[in-house]
Amino acid sequence: MASCSEGSPGKEKIVMVRRFMLLAALFVGAVLLFVVWLFLALPPLCGKEVLQEAVSPDGRYKASVYEGSCGSTTGVATYIAVERNFDTLLAKEADVLIANGDRMSVGVRVRWSGPRALVVSWRGSERVFLAESQVLGISVDYVDR
Length: 145
What we know:
The chain is an alpha+beta fold and 145 residues long. The protein contains two helices and nine strands; from the N terminus they run H-E-E-E-E-H-E-E-E-E-E. Strands 1-2-3-4-7 form a five-stranded antiparallel beta sheet, with no helix packed on it. It has a four-stranded mixed beta sheet with strand order 5-6-9-8, with no helix packed on it.
């Protein structure tokens, strides 16, 4: 005689596997949510502090001097970038100067001498990674302080 509960162990296994899969999916989802929360909640690894901004005489460009650092082991670098002012659709930033050292050691200041002429005054630096003489159609002159 066959009992009515013959298929029961197989069904129990299926139910247990489904519960395990559901718990595993919930766990993976919770871990992913936690990682996303950490990514959004923690401050960025590299910081960027704007030190000076100067708008060109015609208002079309903006030069920014900023200091960047990616932590205590990487040191500080001073940057100058030029971008089209108030043009969010065609926003394009071009690096003019990248030098090793903070604002005190590099001593950078920018000013516009014309609509497409930027003057960078600085004390110089032992390690200059980039010093462009022209970006985005703008001529760049360097003057020692």
